[in-house]
Amino acid sequence: MWIFTKYGFYSAVCARQGDGSHRQPVDPSRIMVRARSRGHLEALKERFPEAFAGCEVMETSHTDYRYRQFVAKDTWRRVVDELVEEMDYDNFKADVARFGGHDAYHDSLHDVWSVMQTFQRKG
Which of 5, 19, 28, 87 is a good FRET partner for 78, with 20 to 30 A between their CA atoms? Predict the structure, then answer.
């Protein structure tokens, strides 16, 4: 699952058992929340301190998402539910700009929007 929020961009997948290495089977009760920016995971952790208490932001240089942390699936479900509940905008990119300013993340959202508009025209 990809999720774009005003706090950042996340890729959430089922974690693997044990140390999470590629050789381990999937653990459907645990989520690995990945990000391209440490700041995005830190912003999520700041917004939901109870959900991410004791969750270390791990950094790896040999994976496609450099930053990650692990949470129980039920915890991730509650975080996503709260993100939905706090929505009060009618334009996502404008809300991101209002929340975080015009930075690289905001600019990247415009790129994603453009790519998906091209997809729509082709579909």
Answer: 19
**Contact present, 31 and 41 (Cβ < 8 Å):** no
At 118, the pLDDT band (50, 70, 90 cuts) reads very high
Size of the chain, expressed as the number of residues it contains: 123
Helix (H) or strand (E) holding 102: none
Read off the pLDDT of each residue in 69-85 and give the average, rounded to a whole number: 97
Instruction: Report the candidate in 22, 49, 44, 47 with the shortest Cα–Cα distance to residue 33.
Output: 44
Angle at 91 between CA 85 and CA 97, to 5 degrees: 95
Ordered by start, the domain boundaries in the chain are: 2-87, 91-123
Helix 104-122 vs helix 92-100: crossing angle, to nearest 10: 170
pLDDT at position 51, please?
95
Report yes or no: 9 and 2 within 8 Å, Cβ to Cβ. yes
Q: Could you tell me the pTM of the whole model?
A: 0.91
The yes or no reply on domain 2-87 and CATH 3.30.980 is no
